[in-house]
Design brief:
By secondary structure, the chain is of the alpha+beta class. Helix content is 30%, strand content 20%. It folds into two domains: 203 residues, Fructose-1,6-Bisphosphatase, subunit A, domain 1 (Fructose-1,6-Bisphosphatase, Chain A, domain 1); 128 residues, D-Maltodextrin-Binding Protein, domain 2 (3-Layer(aba) Sandwich), CATH 3.40.190. An eight-stranded mixed β-sheet has the order 2-1-3-4-5-6-7-8, sandwiched between helices. The structure holds 2,5-anhydro-1,6-di-O-phosphono-D-glucitol (AHG) and manganese (II) ion (MN) (2 copies). The site of one manganese (II) ion has 4 residues, from strand 3.
Length: 341
């Protein structure tokens, strides 16, 4: 039984078409594109649920017991999104974490005005151990929406503030889809018996401050002085009981981000001396998460304190240090950076 925290019974499709209807010029194209993407997400959710049964776990060797080549679940998810999105006539190009180059829309399909960038399966180290993983996506409009040609690298390398929609799924105890098109953040939960995502939380807002910090502390000694000092501070008991913060780290960014969004606190993937730009990808992870977080009243910055959404990408697989969460926690982090700079 779904717990629905809204008064209306609304599917994701209905929600998107209602949001679009506020624009007199809307043609229904955006809604149709999101319908294709939602279908892909449902198929991936189904395949994730069947992963152990279907012999498609992430870390299997390349051949199964039948001597057939086995694809990793992240590559299967990548194919599903491509096959759902290449022929709709809405996209002019795609970029995926799993493809070295841009993904062209094959001929003879129509080239549309939208661009899709995605991380087909986030949390690869958790695929085999039944821990939450997810899919992350962002949608942009091409620079000249009247063109009917292939999208270019310049079309894809737009700063995050140009996103027109972003979202992610968590394939966890239930499958949730978190979505924004710049009108707040809504959470949908998949009901497998009906095959629909239902709106379950409307216009979620992150608490001003949280009780959780989330970081791979195994990298502690590789971090900068100010980040180490901030983490030590979060662990230090305070007389008002606000600290120590509790530590939570799943190692799937979708899961760590989702908890941060709902409960507040801070998620960090800092730079380290051997990875000056951290690990996470600007296009497929940091930008969509930052758009969603800002829409929920939170903040997202890099280690230099720059707003993630203002960063101009120079390559599609660019990495960035990433700090995201409650505004009160991000402000506190910034004060540590200032103190130690
Ligand atoms: P992906 O599985 O898409 O490659 O992303 C993995 C990322 C992200 O999900 C997570 O936050 C991070 O890797 C964990 O990295 P560490 O193991 O270094 O903590
Ligand atoms: Mn990822
Ligand atoms: Mn991935």
């Amino acid at each position: 039984m779904l717990t629905i925290n809204t008064t209306k019974l609304v599917t994701i499709e209905r929600h998107i078409s209602e949001e679009q209807s506020i624009y007199p010029s809307a043609t229904g194209e955006f809604t149709a594109m999101l319908r294709d993407l939602t279908l892909a997400l449902k198929i991936i959710a189904r395949d994730v649920r069947r992963a152990g049964l279907n012999d498609i776990l992430g870390m299997t060797t390349n051949t199964n017991v039948h001597g057939e080549t086995v694809k990793r679940l992240d590559l299967i998810s990548n194919d599903i999104i491509f096959r759902a999105m290449d022929h709709g006539g809405h996209l002019c190009v795609m970029a995926s974490e799993e493809n070295e180059e841009l993904i062209a829309i094959p001929d003879p399909y129509t080239k549309g005005k939208y661009i899709l960038v995605f991380d087909p399966l986030d949390g690869s180290s958790n695929i085999d151990v039944n821990v939450t993983i997810g899919t992350i996506f962002a949608i942009y409009q091409r620079l000249d929406p009247t063109l009917k040609t292939d999208g270019t690298m310049q079309d894809v390398l737009q700063p995050g503030y140009k996103q027109i929609a972003a979202g992610y799924t968590c394939y966890g105890s239930s499958t949730t889809l978190v979505y924004t098109s710049g009108h707040g953040v809504d959470v949908f939960t998949f009901d497998p018996s009906i095959g629909e995502f239902f709106l379950t939380f409307e216009k979620v807002k992150i608490p001003y401050k949280g009780k959780y910090y989330s970081v791979n502390e195994g990298n502690f000694h590789k971090m900068s002085r100010s980040i180490k000092a901030y983490i030590e501070y979060l662990k230090l008991p305070s007389s008002d009981g606000v600290r120590p913060y509790s530590s939570r780290y799943v190692g799937s960014a979708v899961a760590d981000f989702h908890r941060t969004l709902r409960y507040g606190g801070i998620f960090m993937y800092p730079s380290s001396f051997d990875a000056p730009n951290g690990k996470l990808r600007l296009l497929y992870e940091a930008n969509p998460f930052s758009f969603i977080m800002e829409q929920a009243g939170g903040m997202a910055i890099d280690e230099q304190g720059a707003r993630i959404l203002d960063k101009i990408p120079t390559s599609i697989h660019q990495r960035t240090s990433f700090f995201v969460g409650s505004p009160g926690d991000i402000e506190e982090l910034v004060s540590f950076k200032e103190l130690y700079s």
